[in-house]
């Protein structure tokens, strides 16, 4: 059901790869709520994914490839988006993350540092680049909303999440610091959403992921938040109902983040 929550709003959604991805679900939800947007991902991801199918479902939304580590690509993306819409934007979703060390099973104590640099560049510094590009081009309207997706491994140790934990910590720091400057200059708000472990193509690459989801379900009073739940939350964050929320890391995890233990976990450990 649509409430026209985002009627008239225009933006860019990074990271929709396939129907499992949170960015994909968010695009569908935002379109249902009246938003218009450009879809973007790395050129290699566009070749691998099904983004054109999503674009058709969202009113033939433009698809523009962009490497988030390349400032020229990002500049072209924002310029083409503003040209398409005939003006500035109102929201941006940063749903980007990749770790070669995790993919290749490297332990955190044995990181390949060249791969590590790529992880930080793609998964965290890319947000700074996106915000910097929008800042330099004055691409965002006042009271616009930027949301990036993160995970509680930025605050707690999850061994198999490895270097992505460092990347998420940096991502959240960029959110706070750039959020301060952007809020002061243009009333633009910047936040991260710390989502439950979610069955996506990227998330499923983490070692022991199935067991981890089961544990998080037992540790969350409301259960794990789904990708559809997250899409709903992001739509609210893009709306005018959250105009005074900025520089925050917002946990969207069914209560996992503030639960010490649950009866379900205790019962599962009984002999």
State the main characteristics.
Rossmann fold; 271 residues; alpha/beta; 6-stranded parallel sheet; 10 helices; globular
Textual characterization of the structure:
- The chain is of the alpha/beta class and 271 residues long.
- The protein has a single domain (10-208, 224-259), classed as NAD(P)-binding Rossmann-like Domain (Rossmann fold, 3-Layer(aba) Sandwich).
- It contains ten helices and six strands.
- The protein has helices spanning 22-32, 43-48, 51-57, 71-85, 100-103, 113-137, 164-186, 209-219, 227-238, 263-268, and strands at 10-14, 36-40, 89-94, 140-150, 189-195, 249-252.
- A six-stranded parallel sheet has the order 2-1-3-4-5-6, with helices on both faces.
- Strand 4 (140-150), helix 7 and strand 5 (189-195) form a beta-alpha-beta unit.
- Helix 1 packs across helix 9 (227-238).
Characterize the overall form.
globular
Catalogue the unreliable spans. none
- Order of strands, main sheet, comes to 2-1-3-4-5-6
- Per DSSP, the total helix count is 10
**Share of residues in helices:** 40-55%
Say which CATH homologous superfamily is assigned: NAD(P)-binding Rossmann-like Domain
Query: What is the terminal separation in angstroms?
Result: 47 Å
CATH topology annotation: Rossmann fold
- How many beta-strand segments? 6
Sheet-strand content, in percent, reads 5-15%
Q: Characterize the main sheet.
A: 6 strands, parallel
The average pLDDT is 94
- CATH first level: Alpha Beta
How many separate domains? 1
SS-derived structural category: alpha/beta
Instruction: Provide the CATH architecture.
Output: 3-Layer(aba) Sandwich
């Amino acid at each position: 059901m649509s409430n026209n929550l985002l009627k008239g709003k225009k933006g860019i959604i990074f990271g929709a790869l396939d129907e499992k991805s949170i960015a994909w679900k968010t695009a569908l939800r935002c379109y249902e709520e009246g938003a218009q947007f450009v879809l973007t991902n790395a050129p290699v991801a566009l070749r691998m994914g099904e983004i054109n199918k999503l674009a058709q479902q969202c009113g033939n939304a433009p698809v523009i490839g962009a490497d988030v580590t390349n400032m020229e690509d990002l500049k072209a993306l924002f310029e083409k988006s503003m040209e398409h819409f005939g003006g500035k934007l109102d929201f941006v979703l940063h749903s980007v993350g990749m770790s070669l060390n995790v993919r290749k099973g490297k332990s955190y104590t044995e990181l390949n540092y060249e791969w590590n640099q790529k992880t930080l560049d793609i998964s965290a510094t890319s947000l700074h680049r996106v915000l910097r590009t929008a800042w330099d081009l004055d691409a965002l309207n006042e009271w616009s909303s930027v949301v990036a997706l993160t995970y509680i491994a930025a605050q707690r140790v999850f061994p198999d999440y490895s270097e992505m934990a460092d990347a998420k910590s940096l991502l959240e720091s960029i959110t706070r610091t750039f959020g301060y400057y952007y809020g002061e200059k243009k009333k633009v708000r910047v936040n991260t959403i710390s989502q439950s472990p979610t069955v996506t193509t990227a998330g499923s690459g983490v070692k022991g992921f199935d067991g981890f989801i089961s544990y998080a379900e037992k540790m969350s009073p409301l259960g794990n938040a789904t990708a559809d739940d997250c899409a709903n939350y992001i739509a609210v964050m893009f709306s005018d109902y959250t105009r005074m929320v900025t520089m925050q890391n917002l946990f969207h995890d069914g209560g996992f983040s503030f639960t010490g233990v649950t009866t379900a976990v205790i019962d599962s450990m009984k002999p």
